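Customer ticket, subject: "Can you confirm the structure for Glycosyl transferases group 1?"

Message body: Hello, I'm evaluating your service for our small team and ran a test protein. I'd like someone to confirm that this is what the system normally returns, since I don't have a reference to compare against.
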Amino acid sequence: MNILFLSSGATVPSARFRILPYLRHFQADGHRCYCANSFPQKYDYFPWMGFRPSQLLKRSVRWWHWVRAKLSAFDIVFIDREIFDNQSLEMEERFREACGKMVVDIDDAIFLRCPEKFDCLMKMADLVICGNHFLMDRVRPLNDQLLHIPTCVDLDDYEQRPLPSVNEVPVVGWIGTTGNLKYLQVPSEALREVAGKVPFELRVIVPDISPLSEINLSGVNLVHQRWDPSGEVQQIQQMDVGLMPLFANQEWDIYKCGLKLIQYLAVGVPAIAAPVGVNSEIIDNQQNGFTAQTTEEWQSALLKMLSDPSMRNQMGLRGRRTVQEKYSILANYPILRDRLLELAATS
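Agent reply: Thanks for trying us out. I re-ran your input and got the following:
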C-alpha cells in the first residue's frame, strides 16, 4: 500500500498516539507511508506571525501536500479528524479526488463543534476509524463502514514502573493539559478529606498550574511538575495512583478515548477514574483500578489505594496486562493493517 497520512501535527495527541506509532509497523511490512503534518499545528498559530497569517500558512502547506498527492499514486489518504478546524470541506474533497480511498480517524466529539461538516465528512469517507464504541454509535447512521481502533500506546516506550515503589509518601498523580485542570474539581473534596487522614502527595503534571488556584485543595500536599513531552513516561512512572476525573453530565466527556487512563495502566500505575464513556470499559473495577463519581466514592477509592501498597502493585500489574491485550499498538496494528489492505484492494 501507498498511504498518505494527514496529521494534525507531530505533537498533537491524536497524531502522537493514533498515527505516528503505526508508521514503523507499516514500513516494516513493506508499505510506503508519507506523513504530512499540519504547519502550524491544526489547533495552533504562531503568535509572532499573528492568527490570520498563520492560517494562511497552514492552508498553503496543505495545498502543497495536495499537489504532492496529485503527483503520487496514493492508495489511501488517512485524515486525522479533519483537515482544518473550521466549517470548510474543500480540502477533504480535493484529497478524496486525488487519492484512491479516503479514511477518516476520529477520537473525540468533533461533531459538537461543526455538526454539518462532520455529517458530510462521514458520508464522504470510504472508512471511518473510531476510538471507541460511543463514537461508532454516533457515526453509524451516516456511514456503516466502521472500524474500532482504541487509542493505544507503544509498550516499547512504556516500561513497567519499578516495584515496590521508591516513594516515601505515596504519589497520587494527574497529567494533562492546562485547560483540563478543571476536572480536578470533581475529586477535590475527597482529596481534602483524605489528606486529613492519610499522608500523600498530589502531583499535578501540567504546563501551567495557575488555573488550579480556582479549586479548593486546602490541606492537600500539592506539587506541580511541568509536563515534559520527552520525559512524559518517566513522570507517569513516578506515580503510585493515577487520577482521571471527568464531569458526569458533559457530552464532550462521553466521547473521550481514555488516553490518560491507558498511559497510567501501561506503566503499571493503578487508576481511579470517573465511570464516564470508555473509562468504564478500560477499568475492570477492583482489578486494575476503581471507578468513582461521587465524593464518597472518590474518598473510599483513595483510602483503599493509599492504605494498601500490595493491592496497588497487583492492580498495576493487571492494568499493564489490560493494555497489552487491548490498548497496545502491537495488539491493534494487525487489525488496522488488514482493514486498510482490504480497502486498498477495492480501489
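A couple of notes from the result: The chain has 14 helices and twelve strands. The CA atoms of residues 197 and 303 lie 9 Å apart. Feel free to reply with more questions.
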